[in-house]
Amino acid sequence: MTVLFFFQIHCRLINHFVMSSILSNVLPAPEDPVLSVIFACRDDPCPVKLNLSAGAYRTEEGKPLVLEVVRKAEQQLGNDLSCDKGYLPIDGLADFNKLSAKLTLGDDSHAVEENRVVTIQCLSGRLVLVL
After folding, report:
1. What is the pTM of this model?
2. Could you say which DSSP state residue 63 is in?
3. Cα radius of gyration rounded to whole Å, the chain
4. Quick check: 19 and 27 in contact, CB under 8 A?
5. SS3 of 74, please?
6. Do the Cβ atoms of 121 and 92 come closer than 8 Å?
7. Which residues are bridge partners to 81 per DSSP?
8. Burial environment of residue 126 by CB neighbours within 10 A (0 to 12, 13 to 18, 19 or more)
9. What pLDDT is recorded for position 14?
10. Residues in CB range of 65: below 8 A, 6 or more apart
């Protein structure tokens, strides 16, 4: 037991020094443009400002603001017994993807009609920028 304990400590120390030397060469990431807008709004002295930059609405007290239309939709979905809470396929809901392409490119888009458009449903925020 004692040998195992010292072995674990030894491995942690080696890991710490190896990771420290590897990470010491990593350069800082560039400033996030979305966050810079958030910080600019936060630092703006104007008393009647409203920060809509991050897609997450907040009350004047800084608490999450849930829009009334969202509450109604949640109630409707909560009462819909056919709505399951299972995982979506990795590329999202097929009907949502198809209709998103039509909404974006138009119902009469040749690219949509010829199946030359690929859409995926993904998380919002910065993850979508990675894709």
Report:
1. 0.44
2. P
3. 24
4. no
5. helix
6. yes
7. none
8. exposed
9. 58
10. 57, 58, 59
